[in-house]
Amino acid sequence: MFCSTCGGDNPADAIFCHHCGTDLRNLAIPNPCPKNWEEMEGDASTRHCESCDKDVVDVTGMSKTEAIELFEESTERVCVHGRANRDGRLLFGE
Question: What residue numbers bound the domain in which 48 lies?
Answer without folding.
Answer: 37-91
